[in-house]
Design brief:
By secondary structure, this protein is mainly α. 63% of the residues lie in helices and 0% in strands. The chain has 20 helices and no strands. It has helices spanning 37-47, 56-59, 61-69, 87-95, 115-125, 132-144, 148-155, 164-178, 184-197, 201-217, 222-234, 242-261, 265-282, 289-312, 319-332, 337-349, 353-364, 368-384, 388-401, 406-414. The longest helix is centred in the C-terminal third of the chain and has 24 residues, at 289-312. The model is unreliable at 1-8 (pLDDT under 50).
Length: 422
Amino acid sequence: MAPASSPGLRMRSRYTRSDPKGLFPRLTGLPELPHNRLGAFWRPIIDMTDSDLASSRLRMIRPVASWLADPASAEPLWFARINVAGLRHQVIRHSGLNAYDCQEPKDLAEELRTPEWETLVRAIDGFEDLDYYVRTIVLFQLAQLSYCELGVRLAGDVEPDGDPVRDRYVYQVARLHARLPGSRPLALRLFERLATSSKDSLLALLSCFQGISHAIRKEDDLDLACRFERYGHAITGLPGDWHTYLVKSRFHRALALLRLNERRFGEMRDELETALDLHERLRPEVSGEIDTMVANENRRILLESQINAAIRARGDESATQVRALCEEIIGLDPYCVLVRLAVGDGHAAIGDHAEAARWFERAGELGTGAGAIGWFRAGQCHDFLGDRGAAVNAYGRCLELDATAVEPREYLTTGRRPGDPA
């Protein structure tokens, strides 16, 4: 079998599943939470306890939990990213912490509940009696814990009505719907209503950002994305604080994604530069722990966008520049499985397959479906380099995380590489 560096061979980003839902094996016999390897990296999503080895997205669980415990101290929710539905279930299965697996927070055994978990359960039980702002916090926390279906069920049918606080609640409901495949059209309808009717100009622009992103990534609907772009350009009356720079940065980042999919690569880079410039303009006004977390999250996502741009539409970025982007993003969020995948992708894009394999394996070591993808990409890198033993190990580790992975199973049984003709 010739090394895959031969002409015509390309890396595939994802494997095919024999079952679209995947199958994440349930491990047993592993150490309990205080001594569990994966538990150290995923602790916030397991029991809402903070960990300095968790990703930045998971570390946002702690402040939101404190706001639920004391709503009077709560701050506006500016965090951008929420977890995919079912992520906690994957973590539990791969870490062997099976006692923590529960369909809903109330199903967790009382002896395993932290004070933060108890507070969340009480808020869910009394959801209908909460004001809309606290309901928004509850839904965001459920999304962080990947209980998106429960959040949608609690919220029920919602429509914006022009009240800024309630409209922000509707926005959060729409974000949960966007995480559930069958609910994405409803999410896009709610985002469109908010984009065109909200009296909160920042919320309207945020809805345009969400609309563009989900219309492209999930629905492949460029016409709808362009409609959200027109709505965004028509919004006026934005306030004069750093949150405007933040939201405008997100909006132009979404426009960069749109231009990429329209194959207007020069304009894509212009939009990305605008998003980066807006980010730099907000930085001098940021102070305090929470604002710093929000700003760092925005910078981290922009770095990921720059790496993706170099991968999908390579311009004049040098290998040195791509490596610098990879170094900065891993410095911001070293324990995030998605960041490690992005760094691996960046190194693969410049032909450094050995370094790419190292980062893909580091992603795989964090488990979950994303980790399975990491091992899959690592296997291809090792095959490209002619190291069949390392490729077999990587593909086997992929199957240990997702037993439905088709191409890794075929490689192990027949030696056929991903993408080779059957």
